[in-house]
Amino acid sequence: MTPHAVMTGARAAAIAPRASSRARGGAPSSSSSSHRASRIRVCVAGSEPSSEPSLHRPCLPPSRRDALALGIAALVSASSARPSVAGGVPTLAEVTPPIAPAEALTSLESGTVALFERCTRSVVNVVDVTVLSGKAMTSGAVVPEGNGTGFVWDSDGHVVTNWHVIGSILSQVPKGRDPGEVAKVTLEGADGRTKTFPATLVGAERSKDLAVLKVNAPKEYIAPIARGKSDGVKVGQAVFAIGNPFGFDHTLTTGVVSGLGRTIQSQAGSLISGGIQTDAAINPGNSGGPLLDASGKLVGVNTAIFTSTGASAGVGFAIPVDLVQRVVPQLIEFGSVRLPSLNVTAADPNVGKQLGVKSQGVLVQAVPSGGEAARAGLLATRRGLGGIVAGDVIVEADGRRVVTEGDLVAAVEAHQVGESVVLKVRRGEGGDERAVEEVTLAIKLEAAAEQK
Hints:
24% of the residues lie in helices and 28% in strands. The chain has 452 residues and is of the alpha+beta class. It folds into four domains: 3-80, no CATH class; 113-221, Thrombin, subunit H (Beta Barrel); 238-328, Thrombin, subunit H (Beta Barrel); 341-447, PDZ domain (Pdz3 Domain). Helix 1 (3-24) packs across helix 2.
């Protein structure tokens, strides 16, 4: 019997006695009264009408009856699938789904985790005291230049960072005066707790964007970093940067070496040769932090990013550790650095084009009188009878091709002060091509003149 047939029959059974009694003009019978007192039930497909009273509501249309029937069937099925428990109420354990165990780390992940745990104590937070006197961070995206990173160099408590991290306080101290405390350095102890110590200046080299600080901290806070070499670094190898970007301490980012031999322009405007380019995220606050290889050894000092927004765009640069190894020991011992230099001024490439220079190389703009370059016979750009005469164009240094000023700096910095570099120059550029000659000069390197 269909639900409709059942409902129709029930209504007929309830209505028929009433209709017959009214037809006879008599009082309704007790049978009809009981029918009126009864309530109409909602009938489900396949069920029989019940004689018990039900809620007073009309039967549902077929579509809603079908949906209700399906819902009741699902509830019945779900209840029958539950485990049988006392009272019919499931326990918490029975309704809690099983939790799958965490998957084991891959060998690559395990290596990265071990590297971070091994090296993180060597990385410190460095804040210029002039920053602390104001606001260390004005918002979650603005970090003052004096809020950066450093790393522990040795067991004596020397900390290496970028010159520009503490450049604000250094620029305010008169030349020759001891600046005293220049920064606050936060180190992590062996128990994982951090503590902040005052730091004094040991030495700084603005042209290489490097500075050495000294903290008097207990030995349990001193964890020197392991140092590697940058001359064996290859494009494509994995590198890791640990720093304090935007003030978030001990942040690890990973990437690869994207390029080598880049010429970095320091905050002071000088050129740093041999820079390592990486796509590991480097942001404000990472300055002065270490760039590590897969074994956790220092291969560079993060110093700059190439960006149009102020945030990482995947092009970061690090000072090669081989240069750091030459600079830092001198800063610790003497407080300053004697860097090798020709002490000549290179002309802007556009100047060479205006003077008709066709050779690729570095046009010499100025040569100090009395210096080793002048004594060796290197010619500068000068004024002649017919106008400006182009100076010598350096095209080779120690047999290596020189195209940019960075190439020349790299060749010079491979030597020590007092050693000689052999240059090949083209003389007579900008005039008659038949008058151009190649000249070889051996020039003794001097200590780099102090920048004003």
